[in-house]
Write a structure and sequence with these properties.
Blueprint lengths: L1 E6 L5 H10 L1 E6 L4 E3 L4 E3 L2 H8 L4 E2 L10 H9 L4 E5 L7 H4 L6 E5 L11 H7 L4 E8 L9 E8 L6 H25 L31 H10 L7 E4 L2 E11 L10 E5 L3 E5 L4 E9 L4 E3 H7 L10
Parallel strand pairs: 1-2, 1-6, 2-5, 6-7
Antiparallel strand pairs: 3-4, 7-8, 8-9, 10-11, 11-14, 12-13, 13-14, 14-15
Helix pairs in contact: 1-6, 5-7
Length: 312
């Protein structure tokens, strides 16, 4: 099967590797190189770097809207692909592009649709404390992750699992599910299951403002936040007017009536005990402004944190 692959971040790389081994990838579309790092050097996407390893032709349009992408659309059509495969591409595919290949376009989505449509489904699963997630391979239409489903594959979320681990497992599951769906499409056995819109919910793209810890929240919500927002953007709080990133916390019992965010204890073998909305947490890993992330006990050895003060 001749395939044009469209993807951008690391999540989309395992799918490209799988396609390269089992199908004919005639071209790869990915987002343009972006400034990255302290030097703001133009940096190719993970998918572009993987595509170049295979010597696949790479297209990097700024948009696929009709009035601005005539040359790109002509290139896509000229490759004569049977199907377009999309995984975390980051550009909207207009109807004219969706209808271009004979078998249409399919998408690798990192949730069990119709739950968590949108840009941040893995983060949403962790933020909400879900114990299961999975991959959906779906036909694409003009809606946001609303197309008919081909297959869904489920996995368990480990109790203390954090974003990097779940992301990598989901990415590999996506590659495996993609090959299965393409096999079904080739032999004509692929089902089309309509999504129940009444069960849908959205996971919009994360913003830095979403990373601010509200200490009045329940302990579990704060812990889930640190799991979901590692490594970006990192759960954040303020202490003495400076930003701190809180990387890991552990639940702790506390039945007092102290103000939320108050530092209840400083322990040089455990960390920093902070009042939450329903109990307390031990901060066990954090990062000061302008420094590297470290165990809280190491942070305490080099910086003054006062019992009775408050995180905001």
């Amino acid at each position: 099967m001749k395939i044009i692959y469209m993807g951008t971040p690391a999540f989309a790389v395992p799918c490209l590797h799988a396609l390269a081994k089992h199908h004919q990838v005639v071209a790869v579309c990915t987002q343009p190189d972006r400034p990255a790092g302290r030097g703001h050097k133009l940096t190719p996407s993970p998918v572009k770097m993987a595509a170049l390893e295979y010597n696949f032709p790479v297209l990097q349009p700024q948009t696929l809207r009709l009035e601005e992408s005539k040359d790109t659309r002509a290139q896509l059509k000229a490759y004569g692909a049977d199907i377009f495969v999309v995984a975390a591409y980051g550009l909207i595919l207009p109807k004219g592009v969706l209808n271009m290949p004979p078998l249409g376009c399919i998408n690798v989505h990192a949730s069990l649709l119709p739950k968590y449509r949108g840009a941040s489904p893995i983060h949403a699963a962790l933020l909400n404390g879900d114990t299961k997630s999975g991959i959906t391979i779906m036909h694409m239409d003009v809606g946001l992750d609303t197309g008919d489903m081909i297959i869904k594959r489920e996995l368990d979320i480990h109790p203390q699992e954090r974003f990097p681990s779940l992301h990598d497992r989901m990415a590999q599951l996506g590659a495996d599910a993609l090959l299965e769906a393409l096999s079904q499409l080739e032999n004509g056995t692929a089902p089309r299951t309509t999504q129940d819109d009444a069960l849908s919910c959205y996971a919009p793209m994360l913003q830095k403002a979403d990373a601010i810890i509200r200490w009045e929240w329940p302990t579990t919500k704060i812990q889930n936040m640190t799991r979901a927002l590692d490594p970006w953007p990192g759960s954040q709080t303020m202490y003495n007017g400076k930003s701190l990133k809180i990387w890991q916390v552990e639940p702790a019992e506390y039945h007092g009536t102290s103000q939320t965010g108050k530092i209840l204890d400083i322990n040089f073998t455990k960390g920093i005990l902070v009042k939450t909305g329903d109990a307390a947490v031990w901060i066990t890993e954090l990062q000061g402004d302008g420094s590297k992330r470290m165990p809280a006990v190491d942070y305490l050895r080099g910086r003054k944190v006062e019992k009775g003060a408050r995180f905001e």
